[in-house]
Amino acid sequence: MTRMDVPESEHGHARVFAIDLPADQVADFERDGLEAALGTERLDRDKVELFPASDIAAMGLSNYLVDGMGMDPEQVRPDAARLDALGGHILILPSSAVRGRTLTPKPPLRWIGTYSEPQSVAPMDRLRSDSAEGVLEPTETRAPSNAAMSGRVATLALLVLLLLVVVMIVIA
Question: What sections of the protein cross the membrane (predicted)?
Answer without folding.
Answer: 153-171
